[in-house]
Specification:
By secondary structure, this protein is mainly alpha-helical. It contains 16 helices and three strands.
Length: 408
């Protein structure tokens, strides 16, 4: 549907601007005439069937800095259009720059800030839009931006800790795979040639050595089949998790997998508490807040539990009871939520829960990293040791043969 910017005179004779969708300019004019207004100027800004511009996704760190600066400028009394223009000029992110220019033009054309940002869902999610809309309605946009920047900074910090903790184990794993590939692809075939030159027949080669030689031959001759199989498995998995059923199976497995399942659950709990607390602090109604949280918690199983709790709350139940019934929320969390609901400080309690689980995530990551490092090093040593021992086992038979020949 085409989008128009318009200018009209209100009942007091003042000039108002805005943006609206309509089938045609005539229909838009009639719509305003029915309300007693007369449009003085109309301009089409998007033709029918035109594809919306896509600018990509902005990094959370850049969004956090943007919100912090935006809040400071709004608090200083600078107009929204001026704020967006200045922030677009000074940002170093080209994607964010284009988005802010587009948002600024729409706000100048009469759209609300939340509506203009809603046109860029890849960068501004439901949480972002909900907080901005709450700030606009309550007249406390600068406070909403401050809370949003604080939330984004906490989220970025949590993600950074997870990535930092997993960097060393991932490097060790890549190194282990690289060393194993080198030994099997290059060293084993060379050694097999030496064993053949020594006169060893296939039946004289020990089973571990024969296994490595067969693996090396398959890797050398059928590498493309293995590569295609790996690509097919990855593609099939992504296709499977793109369905609702597949995503639920994958998310349930993430919660049940040993060691890492508890870590994933704690991350989801921290995200749930932080998001819910931020929304309630900003004045967002609890039903709308729970709907937003369900879309940002990061696990469909927990999202379904939140939406089920939302339906029960609409019927008059307390918040803690349906959350407890899902068995995904620990008793401590349910108890603190119940106390917060009774005392009228639910947002404060949720922030405390978020602080607790973020500390738990950090502690779990430290313990997990400390345990993974020696395990992966021992695993690498075992694999390399198996290859070396398997390659030298045939030499025992060669030596035995030479010894028996010398004895004769």
């Amino acid at each position: 549907m085409p989008v128009f910017t318009y200018t009209f005179r209100d009942a007091s004779g003042g000039t108002q601007k805005g943006t609206a969708e309509a089938e045609s300019e005539e229909i838009l004019r009639k719509r305003f005439e029915e309300q007693g207004f007369t449009i003085t100027e109309v301009t089409m800004i998007k033709a029918k069937g035109a594809k919306p511009k896509r600018y990509g996704k902005v990094k959370l760190g850049n969004l956090a800095v943007f919100c912090r600066q935006f809040s400071t400028m709004v608090d200083a009394g600078v107009s929204l259009v001026r704020c967006l223009d200045v922030l677009a000029q000074q940002t170093q992110d080209p994607k964010l720059k284009k988005i802010l220019i587009d948002v600024g033009e729409r706000v100048e054309g009469g759209e609300s800030l939340s509506r203009a940002m809603q046109r860029h869902p890849r960068s501004f999610n439901n949480l972002f839009i909900g907080l901005i809309r709450a700030g606009e309605v309550g007249g406390v946009l600068e406070e909403s931006l401050q809370r949003l920047s604080h939330f984004l900074e906490k989220d970025v910090e949590l993600r950074r800790k997870v990535k930092a903790a997993m960097t060393y184990p991932v490097l060790v794993f890549v190194l282990a795979v690289g060393i194993t590939f080198f030994l099997v692809y290059w060293f084993v075939p060379q050694w097999a040639v030496i064993l053949t030159d020594l006169g060893l027949k296939a039946e004289d080669i020990p089973a571990p050595t024969q296994f490595l030689i067969s693996l090396a031959d398959n890797l050398k001759n059928n590498w493309w089949i293995m590569l295609l199989s790996l690509i097919a498995i990855i593609f099939a998995y992504r296709l499977f998790v793109s369905t609702r059923f597949g995503r639920r199976v994958a998310d349930r497995a993430k919660l049940k997998v040993p060691v890492f399942g508890k870590l994933h659950h704690k991350i989801c709990m921290a995200r749930f508490s932080r998001t819910m607390g931020t929304l309630l602090t900003s004045g967002v109604p609890i039903l709308q807040a729970m709907e937003t949280v369900a879309g940002t918690v990061g696990n469909t199983i927990m999202s379904d539990a939140v939406m089920e709790a939302r339906a029960r709350i609409r019927e008059g139940d307390r918040i803690g009871e349906p959350l407890e019934a899902s068995r995904l929320f620990p008793p401590m969390v349910v108890h603190m939520i119940g106390v917060g609901e009774e005392s009228g400080s639910l947002d404060f309690m949720l922030q405390k829960i978020a602080d607790f689980y973020e500390a738990e995530v950090e502690s779990t990551l430290a313990s997990l990293t400390a345990a993974l490092e020696p395990i992966m090093i021992v695993g690498l040593g075992f694999v390399v040791g198996f290859i070396v021992i398997s390659m030298f086992l045939p030499l025992v038979r060669v030596i035995e043969r030479l010894s028996s020949g010398a004895g004769d």
